[in-house]
Specification:
The structure holds two protein chains of two kinds.
Chain A: E1 8-19, E2 22-33, E3 37-41, H1 48-56, E4 63-68, E5 71-72, H2 77-81, E6 84-87, H3 99-109, H4 114-127, H5 143-155, E7 161-165, H6 173-188, E8 192-197, E9 208-213, E10 216-221, H7 223-228, E11 233-238, H8 242-250, E12 255-261, E13 264-269, H9 272-285, E14 294-296, H10 300-314
Parallel strand pairs in A: 3-8, 3-9, 6-7, 7-8
Antiparallel strand pairs in A: 1-2, 1-4, 4-5, 9-10, 11-13, 11-14, 12-13
Chain B: E1 8-17, E2 20-30, E3 35-39, H1 46-53, E4 61-66, E5 69-70, H2 75-81, E6 82-85, H3 97-107, H4 112-126, H5 141-152, E7 159-163, H6 171-186, E8 190-195, E9 206-211, E10 214-219, H7 221-227, E11 232-237, H8 241-249, E12 254-260, E13 263-268, H9 271-284, E14 291-295, H10 299-310
Parallel strand pairs in B: 3-8, 3-9, 6-7, 7-8
Antiparallel strand pairs in B: 1-2, 1-4, 4-5, 9-10, 11-13, 11-14, 12-13
Helix pairs in contact in B: 3-4, 3-5, 4-5
The chains are: A alpha/beta, B alpha/beta.
Amino acid sequence: MSEPGAEPSIRVAALTKRFGAVTAIDNVTFAVTSGELFGLIGPDGAGKTTVLRVLAGVMAADSGSVQVGGVDVVAYPEQVRARISYMPQRFGLYEDLTVDENIRFFADVFEVPRRVREERAARLLAASGMQRFRRHLAGQLSGGMKQKLGLTCALVHAPKVVLLDEPTTGVDPVSRREFWQILYGLRAEGAAIVISTAYLDEADRCDRLALMHSGGLPYCEAPDALRARMPGAMVEIPTPRARAAREALASVPGVRSVLMVGDGVHVHVDDARKALSDLERALAQQGIEHTGAREILPSIEDLFVALLGNAAAAGRKAGAS
Amino acid sequence: MSEQPPMIRVEGLRKQFGDFLAVAGISFEVAQGEILGFLGPNGAGKSTTIRMLCGLLKPTAGRIHIDGVDVAADPDALRKRIGYMSQKFSLYQDLTVRENLRFYGGVYGLRGAALESRIGYALEMSGLTAHPETLVSALAGGWKQRLALGCAILHRPRILFLDEPTSGVDPLSRRRFWDLIHDLSTEGVTILVSTHHMDEAQYCNRIALIDRGSIVALDTPGQLKRRSLGGELVRIECASPDRAMQALAALAQVRDVAVFGNSLHALVDNAADAAAAIVERLRTRGIAAARVTQIDATLEDVFVRLVSANHGPAGTGA
């Protein structure tokens, strides 16, 4: 999305943050350019929220540096705060104010002129399907609507750097799509956006994503480039007897693992073309009825497990965290 | 599966809270050993339905039969047959693994050797055989989740209800969990799962899509993806996706188009026919070298399409 060699809007170098014995961020380095949508993807406890808090200047790191728009966050937190928009997991809406009043409040905080505010608020509310609710109290909105209102408030001053912490958690799928379309509009205006999510299926919506694991960022790439790192390939075989199929296929040469899904199995193989006939044969020998095996695109969850599965298992003491 | 009577039979189930119709008259059946997923956003009526099925909440109207038991007439007979695991994994954090199992075993009326044998089974199943004396508060999320499952099946229930079981756990733990669920299903346990995670639904044999208290579709994940979209989905890789979207919005072959990452997704009647028209339109608008490929629909695509149709004006489907 960005011009090659463009000055990064966000530059993070060797960032580390500890809480007592726990290393929440472990020597993390990355940069995000203007017009880029950067995803921090990982399960609860991976360190996503801590990274965003440090970027927003609301929490100090133990070591490393963070620059936003060329300004050092540690040295000049106030100056940075005026340039960014940070939406924490629980955005501070005023529940006893209306939708319009909330937007106006946040616009005033950031000294947005009235004409600009009205034009921008109208556009954001239209994009999120919320015009009809402008006079409703924020406290009466559903969870998904509150998140959309939070985003509208966070974006009303046209920030150049946007930090969003799991903004789509608990948001229904229709609202979630509206949410992403708003973010793409913002991206087209040249904002640098960092978004965290625990939904791995959202990863494909980012320009670049970082798989976050135990405080580190071992993988940080465009979704397609990351997929290209998948060792082997995924094959889908629809069958009503998923468990029998798993047993029949687990020992076939070239099979790395077999995952049971609701209407069949997903088989991780070394080489899809070589494996297809072997898989079909193994099922036929056991008399396991199935329809055609075919190669499918690995999901980001497949990648996460293939790339980090062993690290995830080894990283934990047996039974205890 | 068709010879036996259904393990769960629900007819015309309704629940009204004041003016609010939480469950709007739903009917469905679940066969023994089947895994049925209730997929829908928060507030769609999933939890209310499950609470009625467990006998915790009285329906406004409708009938529920579970394992031949009329839930309204005989709630006590029901309780022995069902297990329930909530997303909060109601474990006692300041008790050990074994103490939690012993507590839940007692609640279900297990004693003596039978209890010890089931505790042994639950420890093995959850991978905690070596850690019975560990405090639950010291366990990682994936282990807590498997322990909660162990507690829910100590009394060998024939039907298991799971409410958002894997929210927030890491992907590998989630897969291990679903392996256990599939094992239980193979042993004949009937499982009803509620979730708003689209990627969790793929583990279910059939999925009921729930919106505003109604079932808008009920089928296998594969059939839902193949049949419910009413068209084919294509990915369009090109420069300036935002500008390309404007250019394609009015194209006759494109029913819906939206930005998706650094490409576009479009819903079309026929991928092969539409591809040429899309490439040509983009070329005339100065966006060259577009690449169009057909892609598999996701359950989210299906859900958004069906829900939008259910609500009237569509437009966010692709």
